[in-house]
Amino acid sequence: MSRIAYVNGRYLPFAEATVHVEDRGYQFSDGVYEVCEVKGGHLVDEPMHMRRLQRSLGELKIAMPMSLAALRVVLRETVRRNRVCDGLVYLQVSRGVARRDHAFPATGTAPSVVVTARSADRTAAERVAAAGIAVITVPENRWDRVDIKAIALLPNVLAKQAAKDQGAKEAWFVGKDGYVTEGSSSNAWIISRDGKVITRPADHGILRGITRTVLLKVLKSQGLELEERPFTVEEAYAAREAFVTSASQVVMPVVQIDGRPIGNGAPGLVATALRQDFHQHSELV
Ligand code: PDD
């Protein structure tokens, strides 16, 4: 079955799913995106993803490309046409097509919209989670508006490749102050020796992950103590557990950072329990 993409009003086979060479997303990375998990054919926490999309668009002064209701239909239709039961749906909105000029195009230029969906192998994901992943640390070199889910991801791309080159699955950015900000495509968490769950506040320096927001509820339900504060790499090395969160990985145990085993070097009990419980607290729509 050929994959289908939604591109500016049409559902097209991938081979025909193209954007204009002067699309500002292509030329300037002038756009935003969302990635939403699909579980049992339902979108996971879609309302929160849509709210974050609207915020990202607003921060960049890009118009909402269509009504929220229409956008929700497009997301579902793309999932349906690709027969995705478990997987991901990707949505990208750029500032549209215009003659190349850094400044914004004329008011009224239509934003471009692309939606794709793909299936994920749940069994393989569970296998990865049962083994845990290795993380490396890299210097933070991103701009200071990483709270916007912009498609400009070059530092994240380079960080992820550095991780891959070293046999790891994720890279954690570390600021000049020695504090971890977040992963190249995930939020970073540790659990201290005395059982406190620590993650950086989402007001500055990180993307406010939807998985992160929902996990705060899971923590509460499990009676875990949360400390929303930055943590250093040294603290992470000495942590009892570590994990990352994202729509694509949900809660993923980290068993190694910069080659050092975390805790006993196996996925932590708390991270594993959080992963198991996560979808009881997420909204399937
Ligand atoms: N990444 N931080 C960054 C830099 C991210 O790119 C992501 C998500 C997150 C976690 O956000 P959420 O829980 O809402 O997925 C944090 C997506 C999945 C991606 O780029 O594929």
Question: What are its keywords?
Answer:
285 residues, 8 helices, nine-stranded mixed sheet, six-stranded antiparallel sheet, 30% helix, binds N-(5'-phosphopyridoxyl)-D-alanine, alpha+beta
What would your notes on this structure say?
With 285 residues, the protein is an alpha+beta fold. It is built from eight helices and 15 strands. The strands form two sheets. Strands 7, 8, 9, 10, 11, 12, 13, 14 and 15 form a nine-stranded mixed sheet that branches. The chain has a six-stranded antiparallel sheet with strand order 2-1-6-5-3-4. Helix 6 (210-221) packs across helix 8 (269-281). The longest helix has 15 residues, at 46-60. The protein is globular and about 55 Å long. The model has no long low-confidence stretch (mean pLDDT 98). The site of N-(5'-phosphopyridoxyl)-D-alanine has 15 residues, from helix 6 and strand 13.
Short structural description:
With 285 residues, the protein is of the alpha+beta class. It has 8 helices and 15 strands.
Percentage beta strand: 25-35%
Order of helices and strands: EEHEEHHEEHEHEEEEHEHEEEH
Radius of gyration: 19 Å
Q: Specify the number of helices.
A: 8
How many individual β-strands? 15
Average pLDDT value?
Answer: 98
Helix content: 25-40%
Largest sheet: 9 strands, mixed
What molecules are bound to this protein?
N-(5'-phosphopyridoxyl)-D-alanine
